[in-house]
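Retry 2 of 3 after timeout on previous attempt. Resubmitting structure tokens to design endpoint.
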């Protein structure tokens, strides 16, 4: 086996067969440094504010027993703003899917999507549980929020930090 220089790295090349195209999907999904873009922080702040506003009005709508037609826009706004925040996190690195913070977002999303199918009496309770759960996760220590459930073998195999 010989080596070939490509972009400053020694890549193993078999002398009997052609080298297969390297799989770069792990570097796209799990870059060594988090991807950033201009005004990321500002956009996240705006989205968080919109998310809190929509969720507050959604909860108030259920608490004060408002008609579904008045609640629906705040439900959609809560979903869209929350998904936008999560997609920005995933743009940085898909490692978030394997961390407490990402798993909690998936749990919250699943529970929020159940909301329209629940009896009206349970909808308010579910929203309160979601808010308490979200507060506990988002205000916990960074080391807890970023705790990874990705196996060490996967991390080592694909160079995930």
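Retry 2 succeeded. Sequence:
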């Amino acid at each position: 086996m010989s080596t070939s220089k490509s972009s400053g790295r020694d890549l193993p090349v078999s002398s009997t067969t052609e080298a297969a195209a390297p799989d770069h999907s792990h570097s796209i999904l799990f870059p060594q440094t988090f991807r950033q873009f201009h005004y990321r922080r500002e956009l996240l702040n705006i989205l968080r504010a919109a998310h809190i506003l929509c969720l507050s009005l959604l909860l108030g709508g259920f608490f004060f027993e408002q008609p579904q037609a008045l609640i629906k826009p705040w439900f959609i706004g809560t979903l869209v703003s929350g998904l936008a925040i999560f997609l920005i996190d995933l743009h940085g690195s898909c490692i978030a899917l394997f961390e407490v913070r990402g798993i909690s977002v998936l749990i919250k999303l699943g529970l929020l999507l159940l909301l329209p199918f629940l009896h009206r009496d349970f909808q308010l309770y579910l929203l309160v549980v979601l808010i308490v759960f979200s507060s506990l996760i988002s205000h916990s220590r960074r080391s807890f929020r970023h705790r990874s459930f990705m196996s060490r073998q996967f991390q080592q195999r694909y160079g995930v930090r």
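Attempt log closed. Residues 40-145 form one domain.
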